[in-house]
Structures
1.
Amino acid sequence: MIPSTLDAVVTEIADEMRARSDRGVVASYIPELGRIDPNQFAITVVTQDGQVASGGDCDVPFSIQSVSKVFTLTLALGLAGDRVWNRVGREPSGSPFNSIVQLEREKGIPRNPFINAGAIAVTDVILSGHQPREAIGEILRFMQFLADDDGIYIDHNVAASEDESGFNNRALANFMKGFGVLDNPVEYILGVYFHHCAIAMTCRQLATAGRFLANNGVRPETGYSVVTQERARRINAIMLTCGHYDGSGEFAYRVGLPAKSGVGGGILAIVPGRASVAVWSPGLDTTGNSHLGRIALEMLTTRLGWTIFGPG
Ligand code: GLN
């Protein structure tokens, strides 16, 4: 792929997305997110050899929300290794991101680390042995390190807004605590969880932070190994099967890449061996995934032949 072709495709996609009137619906159950202008769109592709192609509002920070769950899973696996899998499964849930239905049948063990219940269990692993403030700092510094940008911050208004409206997440956490699946006090775990969901990043920063997953666990610019090759592959596998909740099958069918979405409208997609891609459009579809973000990624993988399911 010569960079000029990549630039042209990315520019074309950004132009097409800006012109569309179907934008999905901005998440309003977190009131602070409900205030976001839905007419924004951004895309950044960072290739393995360091080419960067961007379009739209790629330097506007947005709330990464559940995209943070890829990075908290990475941190928790680093801290506790495969013991993480005693607390959380690796199966797609087929249920909405905030669903509680499977928890009773499965004795408080969430289906996977990317639904809310699973991410709360992962946050509990990171919190153990730390004060909540330290755990939040660890997660933020990890994002800054991966993106090579100390300017990445937590939007405290979003964290407070989610705390005030977090009835559903409190129900999930208390239910799991009742089964003995969580070690730390529920309010501490949720405090850390709300704050990592409230990390604000631009598409450029997010695509940069995802590069180790496209490069066998290694940050290509420094040669620093973030995780082993095997672990990077496995995180990608979970992104493919669980990254879009009950929309994961449709996303794999249409886009064909491991990816993780968030209700802020961001998606991080990994093209193994090739590139890390971030898109952002705040309007969501009925499964809580970015409507135009998914369409943009479908265009990108179709036009460049970048799916993992066949030669590109
Ligand atoms: N912070 C959000 C919540 O817990 C994350 C959900 C998401 O991005 N899907 O509801």
2.
Amino acid sequence: MKRIGLFGGSFDPIHTGHVRLARFLVDALALDRLIVVPAAVSPFKTGAPAGASDADRLELCRLALPDEKIEVSDIEIEKGGVSYWIDTVRAFASQYPGDELCFVVGEDQLLQFHKWRDYREILSFATLVAVRRETDEGDGGFAAYFAAHPEIAARSKALAFEPFPVSSTEVRAAVGAFADVSALVPPAVETAIYRRGLYLDDEIVRMIADVKSRLSEFRFFHSMCVADAARRLALRYCGDPKSAYIAGVLHDATKELSRKEGLAYMDGHGVCATDMERRLKKLHHAITGADYAKRVYDPGDEIVSAIRYHTTGKTDMTPLEKILFVADFISDDRDYPGADGMRRRAEGSLELCMEEGLRFTIEDLAKEGRPIHPDTVACYNQVLLQTIRKEQEL
Ligand code: DGI
Ligand code: FE
Ligand code: FE
């Protein structure tokens, strides 16, 4: 006979508190298996179009709990609509005949438990495990509640747990504010939230949808990875994470225009470019992309300029320009030889990372016999002269 725990909730999103509780339950109840059951949530109920879909919440739970003993079930989400716990418990009881089932409720839920649909039948299938805050002075009203409901008490046990002080509401607000959420959610969840653009304000959600419609799946994925990398670099180097993220989302928006379309864009919108820039197709998307961002979203000169120079670089780059330039080299989707070295370098210094990236680009271009834009050369020379030791002979 196995002992199986059920842990339901909306997990919008799953956070560090949930993860700690899940691990605690496995140990404290000596579970063979813990099944996390995200509830179906009506998109109308949560309101915000930026909210996470059922599939998003499910995937975030899976990313948060890569644990042999913990599994995430899509039973309620597959069913859709309002779920009643009795249906879920009944389904698991028939899936695991002869095994021992228990399910977890928090303090607030316990005090309402006698109002749950068919709660007696629920208790015929599974033991109720009520988790109360270890920090509470009293017992969270548990004793009084159990005294008033002996038929519930007979099938329940109480567990004290020091909760990690975070709520999903708080996480959503912190994500939307581009605060550092690394302590609030597991690293894989943080990455997935920003790669998917969850819990962000409408304007950014619109940008993401627009970029998605303009690019292939692969290029869109790259853009979102760059957005997340830029956001992280901004947190690390005291830049503005929101601007960095927006610059990342938009930086390659016009990348898939053909040479003809790129030139037509420049001519149609009166965008200035030198003869060399018009001939080098690889540079078109930085020039048209900056104009596109300004025209459609007007996100501010700094972001527009970061997009404009993300391919070549230039002298006297602002922190945001450097951040986007580096993010494009180190985003998670990059797997060229040396990518990991670049990521490590970016942890230490944006300039050292730029120097290496520019050297790499220039070497590559020279080997292939392609022209090197003067901005690329000027940028390389400037970071090189800044990063090498002054007394070093050149
Ligand atoms: O748009 P991405 O592929 O994400 O990255 P990017 O905008 O940095 O573009 C990289 C490409 O641009 C790469 O193939 C090298 C090319 N490139 C960068 N600087 C120069 C350049 N090509 C020429 N001809 N001259 C440059 O100075
Ligand atoms: Fe680019
Ligand atoms: Fe890019």
3.
Amino acid sequence: TTSEFGLFGLGVMGKSLCRNLANNGFKISMFNRHVAGVEEDVAVSFKAAHSELSQAEAFDDIASFVNSLQQPRKIMLMVNAGKTIDYVIEDLLPYLSENDVLIDGGNSNYVNTKERFDYLKTNGIHFIGTGVSGGEEGALKGPSIMPSGDVEAYENVKPFLEKISAKDQNNLPCCTYVGPEGSGHFIKMVHNGVEYVEMQLLAEVCTLLEASGNNPDEIATILESWKDTANSYLLEITIAIFRKKEGNDWLVKKILDKAGNKGTGNWTTIASTQLGVPSTLIASALFSRYTSFYKEERTLLNKHFNQADHLELKVSTNDILEAYQFARIINHYQGFKLITEASIAYSWNLNLSEIARIWTSGCIIKSNLMQDLVDVFKNTTNILTDTQFSEGINKYKPSVKKVVSQSVLNDISVPCLGESIQFFNGITTAYSSANIIQAQRDYFGAHTYQRLDDDSGKNYHTNWN
Ligand code: 6PG
């Protein structure tokens, strides 16, 4: 018998997805490259290690792998994002038949996904670019899946992807057809941008709790008590991280303070600047990671400027919780704003409520707040005009003002908390300072300006001297 579904690439995510597919009763073929005699055959040893893979077929030869699949073939690529995808596509192409479907489940750039989609179309092959979130465990037990491409091609892979995905609170799959070409990878990219901010906010909050005199166990206990109002997957793992001990000391205190990244936060920031959308929290979270990398310079300048280490932080635990909640609302507002604007610019017709829904389970940014957004987006695209969320903003605002001010007075860096109130003050200013920018532009470059007392759109120029 032939296999129903192929999985190309047995890295951490590929392996977990194979087991997930097999656990759900699908007959699969698995491919992993290996150099004979030099390395072990990963596909074979992986199959042998897991009983659920007894029916699965393992290959290290592309032709046999492709020929083992029912037509139209469905092959999911789980290889490193970037050029590798193009090489794999070229390797597979000679063996594929018209209407076969390739699925890219990596963190690919949405612009490349569109190019690959167009290229494969000219070869009669369908391409589904899909975001997959949830890490190793999510991939095994049910990830959030964000597929895009031709809707007809999606119908072919839908039974597989929806079956292996996480399920929401109504037991519906956290997998839905997102939209055309690269839209699935676009929303996965924004998911990661929102993820960067949620992580950074927790890092800032924990720093403030520590500066208030709490040890890691006490921080974990405080965060635990926040679950009632602010629960999320990232909150849960942060609690577990703060509890983890190595010997007599907490592991978290032994970790080098340089944050890595694989580029998706960078892409989100680039996309937002290209689309003209102020995703300021994502940029702040990204740049915080970059700042962290200057460890030597930070250490040097810390001494040079005699930054405060005797802290007199006049904030309560509840102030910190409310500031955190305020910033999270702004984060989600900005993330979905970016998706909204991309949807308009690229005519993707994205459904925000459905996107929020497939992010309520399986993915890294699942949270109570995300669950609330599923309904909010049924009525509005703007979170800040929703009654529940605007009440939250009004309630939390005094705390974010206090927490950010106190942080500044105590020389504590809180870029995302700080940017949340700065952005909020900007987006709620009816008459901004941009009139001055316009005057300056006109002064030095005759770039012209429009006038408040003339709504015809006419451009004015003044001879300023
Ligand atoms: C997910 C994660 C996942 C991965 C990112 C992290 O949704 O499962 O976002 O895709 O953890 O690659 O990215 P950084 O390495 O840039 O932090």
